[in-house]
Design goal:
The structure holds two protein chains of two kinds.
Chain A (H helix, E strand, L loop, with lengths): L1 H12 L1 H9 L6 E5 L5 E5 L2 E2 L9 H8 L6 E5 L16 E6 L2 H10 L3 H6 E5 L3 H7 L5 E5 L3 H4 L1 H19 L3 E5 L7 H13 L3 E5 L5 H9 L4 H26 L3 E5 L6 H8 L5 E5 L9 H4 L5 E4 L4 H8 L4 E4 L16 H7 L1 E6 L4 H7 L7 E4 L22 H10 E6 L18 H8 L4 E4 L15 E3 L2 H13 L1 H18 L2 H15 L22 H7 L4 H7 L10 H13 L7 H13 L1
Parallel strand pairs in A: 4-5, 4-7, 5-6, 8-9, 8-10, 10-11, 11-12, 12-13, 14-15, 14-16, 16-17, 17-18
Antiparallel strand pairs in A: 1-2, 2-3
Chain B lengths: L4 E5 L4 H5 L2 H10 L4 E7 L3 H4 L7 E5 L14 H16 L5 E4 L4 H10 L3 E7 L5 E4 L1 H7 L12 H9 L13 H13 L8 E5 L11 H15 L2 E5 L4
Parallel strand pairs in B: 1-2, 1-4, 2-3, 4-5, 7-8
Antiparallel strand pairs in B: 5-6
Helix pairs in contact in B: 2-7, 6-7
The chains are: A alpha/beta, B alpha/beta.
Chain lengths: 602, 237
């Protein structure tokens, strides 16, 4: 009976949910059962998602956690909805994200969802990405239900990062300065990251180091001794870095985000450090190939990488403060399926294609594919070789609009990560290149060499197909050329995954959320009361009074100051000095300790 | 009164700590039942296990009070660290404080402990810095007339701390390390009879450190000229 009521309501009022419901697979992992009170409950992968005694009590429990002033409530997990019933009479927007279409299907079949559907906005599965893009996060508060975060960890991380970052951008106008490279592979990442921040509502100031590229290349072309040339280029980069720091002083950002290859030398970083705002670095490079990270690591407050494991240890040894994994991503406005005219399909299409630079390992592997209809795109290919003769663009640089045409027109897009040390595939390869995400977002089928981090980003075999040897590559080419429906299925799944989890907006949310938590929740850092220098948020009087509430003497000492003022032992001691001068009593323990603290700071 | 509990506050560096040993030996000689607690900076705790006659060691980690990067300074953490150090000392219930540190922080710490018998620098009730004991008063003023000073630091410490000056010299309890060194050298493949040159290259103050490359070059030259094996000394900190 519940099922008919639910189905009728959803079919009539919520067409998108109806589509999801109809297309969801049978709920194989969901096992409906009854609680002791006869209320419907279920187990998912053998874990109870509602209490098996009195699930009705979950309503009061969640309602007690949500303060009455909350007007924008987000709940992670629909389940059978018992926990939501205490929110139904609230004057608030309630959004419920159910990560599993399977559980949603079972809920529609078993529980009475009509009142919940009337009150709450239900978002299911991959729909969350679009919902995040259009929802308002002002005043949003997020509550997970029961075991959901444990079973749907990726979705929980996604939503909690999105809420934390977007509440910030909705409620506080934060200004982010993004510093790009003079030239190089991180240029598109710089643009996409800045664009994502703008869409999220941040005020973005970009430092276009690439505007200085012509000067750099002029120096490179000069007929002078190599030593001189290197010195000149180095000092040119240092000047550009100083320009970035000067711009930051003027723009007064709340956060500086530098991309790999940004021309920020030690002096520029020192100057940026004096701004008192967090400095973040997104090192979208292979640390084994590009070694400059060691010097940069201790200068940044936040260091984001595309590799983990050993690199994290090395970064910490090098003095990095806070390190987080932040893989590359796709930009859905650029990386999307495109309709091609017949002549474009002719020009860009082939059975196999590869887009990228002609590194040695790629030349070795692709030379074994010359019996296929193979087109090579990109630069640095030896045009006189047999493989180079397949270079359709003759080493001319292509624009991103052309990339996506190639991706869409190719039956199989090959993706082989570059390896400067090997002749073939890198068995130790860990990071995932941007192409993986771009191809996925384009809905293009690809075969990619196996990477250690890949399985955490895409479901291998379902959302991405990998190979571990040139022989396996040939086998999979033959299979997938013969099975276009299998290609389509993988490519569609990859696109859904990319658009939900692997866009630049997701990455910027994760980045901001990590920074917010690293700053102890006080981000952007408050300004000192003189309005000039920003200090450490934990040294502000209000925060210290909260954190040190158990120390009565300390609280009394702090109470002499403005709560929004940045505290320093010297300020306390100025007051102590007055007390000593006027002969008004012995020093308290807190006053004495402040004197000690100031001595150590001298 | 016998069996006094004595706190020797020495938040200085390694050399000064070693030069405190005659004072401690003198205190123990005068009253073997006295209990000596030595308070030291965490960075120098390594040497204290070789100081004879010390009954207990209390360490002070000043890192949060003076972080290398000013952005890492958290006043509350620093406050709590200093507070817990003072509380730990206070809990010791000492009868005598011998403060050999002569710094303002040590004077403030001394004044917070409420110890009846103070030798060395301390804050008075009206927050004035005062030095108790004439020898330590002399020592605290030493910097201004150092070139005319005829007393050795070891004797100043002993006299200032209330021990009788004697023919005592700084002593390290090296019985255990000697046996350890033999095993360590064997582990490093250094055999008996080989010439060994030891180098102590460190200093806790950066400006007093010779560049590592200079030490490396010197070590190479020594090894070549004397056909010697080079051993560097140091502690983890």
């Amino acid at each position: 009976m519940n099922r008919e009521k639910n189905e009728r309501l959803i079919r009539e009022c919520y067409p998108r949910l109806w589509e999801i419901y109809e297309n969801s697979p049978p709920a194989a992992d969901v096992e409906p059962t009854e609680a002791k009170t006869s209320a419907p409950v279920f187990k998912y992968k053998n874990a109870a998602f509602h209490g098996i005694y009195r699930p009705e009590e979950e309503a009061a429990r969640l309602a007690a956690r949500v303060p009455p002033e909350a007007k924008n409530i987000w709940v992670f997990g629909l389940g059978y909805g018992h926990h939501l019933r205490g929110l139904l009479d609230r004057e608030a927007d309630v959004t419920v994200y159910e990560p599993s279409p399977e559980i949603f299907k079972s809920a529609v079949e078993v529980a009475d969802l009509t009142a919940i559907l009337d009150k709450c906005r239900i978002v299911v599965g991959d729909e969350i990405a679009a919902e995040i893009g259009r929802a308002s996060f002002k005043g949003a508060r997020l509550y997970p239900h029961g075991p959901y975060p444990r079973f749907f960890e990726a979705e929980w991380n996604l939503l909690s990062a999105a809420v934390s970052a977007r509440v910030l951008t909705a409620e506080k106008k934060i200004r982010v300065m993004v510093v790009g490279p003079i030239y190089g592979g991180s240029e598109p990442t710089f643009r996409h990251a800045a664009g994502a921040l703008v869409r999220m509502g941040a005020e973005v100031v970009v430092f276009e180091a690439s505007n200085f590229a012509s000067g750099y290349f002029e120096l490179d072309k000069m007929a002078v001794a190599e030593d001189d040339k290197n010195r000149l280029k180095e000092s040119y980069c240092a000047t550009v870095g100083e320009a970035a720091a000067a711009m930051a002083e003027h723009a007064k950002p709340d956060l500086v985000l530098a991309l790999a290859q940004a021309p920020l030398g030690l002096e520029a970083l020192e100057r940026l450090g004096r701004l008192g705002v967090p400095l973040a670095f997104w090192f979208v490079e292979d640390y084994r190939t590009m070694g400059y990270w060691g010097q940069a690591a201790p200068r940044y407050d936040y260091f984001f990488t595309i590799q983990r494991g050993l690199f994290f240890d090395k970064l910490r040894e090098a003095g990095a403060k806070r390190v987080a994994y932040l893989p590359q991503a796709a930009e859905p406005d650029v990386h999307r399926p495109v309709e091609l005219a017949p002549e474009e399909r002719e020009k860009y299409g082939s059975d196999l294609s590869f887009m990228g630079a002609g590194y040695r390992n790629r030349r070795v592997v692709f030379s074994r594919l010359l019996d296929y209809d193979l087109k090579i795109w990109g630069t640095e290919w030896d045009l006189n070789s047999e493989l180079g003769r397949r270079a359709a663009n003759k080493n001319e640089r292509l624009k991103p609009e052309e990339y996506v045409k190639i991706f869409s027109a190719s039956e199989i897009n090959l993706n082989l990560h570059s390896s400067p040390m090997l002749d073939g595939l890198d068995p130790e390869g860990d990071f995932v290149n941007p192409r993986v995400f771009e191809l996925a977002a384009c809905g293009a089928f690809s075969l990619v060499d196996n990477r250690r981090e890949l399985g955490e980003l895409f479901k291998i075999g379902e959302e991405v197909v990998t190979f571990s040897s040139p022989e396996e590559l040939r086998e999979k080419i033959d299979y997938y050329l013969a099975h276009p429906e299998a290609r389509r299925k993988v490519a569609d799944a990859a696109r859904r995954r990319a658009l939900t989890h692997h866009t630049f907006e997701r990455r910027m949310e994760a980045m901001l959320s990590f920074i917010i938590s690293g700053e102890g929740g006080a981000f952007p850092r408050p300004k000192s009361n003189d309005g000039k220098e920003r200090g450490n948020p934990r040294n502000f009087v209000r925060r210290m009074m909260e954190e040190g509430a158990d120390d009565r003497e300390l609280v009394e000492l702090l109470a002499q100051f403005d709560p929004d003022e940045e505290f320093s032992p010297a300020k306390a001691n100025a007051k102590t000095e007055e007390k000593v001068r006027s002969g008004s009593g012995k020093l308290t323990r807190a006053e004495s300790l402040m004197l000690i603290l100031e001595e150590y700071l001298r | 009164m016998k069996g006094k509990k004595i706190l020797v506050l020495n938040l200085t560096r390694m050399g000064d700590l070693i030069q405190t040993t005659p004072l401690i030996a003198g205190l123990k000689e005068a009253d073997p039942s006295c209990e000596v607690t030595l308070a030291v900076n965490l960075g120098f705790v390594g040497i204290t296990e070789f100081l004879p006659d010390v009954d207990r060691v209390v360490t002070f980690d000043a890192t949060p009070l003076r972080p290398a990067d000013h952005r890492e300074y958290f006043a509350l953490d620093a406050f709590r660290r200093a507070d817990s150090f003072v509380k730990e000392l206070k809990a010791g219930g000492f009868d005598v404080l011998i403060n050999l540190t002569h710094s303002a922080p040590s004077a403030i710490i001394g004044s917070m402990l409420g110890i009846p018998d103070v030798r060395g620098t301390c804050l008075s009730d009206d927050a004035a810095r005062t030095v108790h004991n004439r020898w330590l008063m002399y020592f605290s003023a030493l910097l201004s007339f150092r070139r005319y000073n005829t007393f050795n630091l070891v004797d100043l410490y002993s006299l200032g701390g209330g021990a009788k000056p004697g023919a005592r010299r700084p002593v390290l309890d090296t019985a255990r390390p000697e046996s350890d060194a033999g095993a360590l050298l064997a582990e490093l493949g250094i055999t008996e009879g080989e010439k060994i040159i030891g180098i102590q290259a460190g200093s806790s103050m950066a400006e007093r450190r010779w560049p590592p490359s200079n030490f490396a070059r010197t070590a190479d030259l020594l090894a070549e000229r004397w056909n010697a094996r080079i051993v560097f000394f140091g502690v983890p900190s």
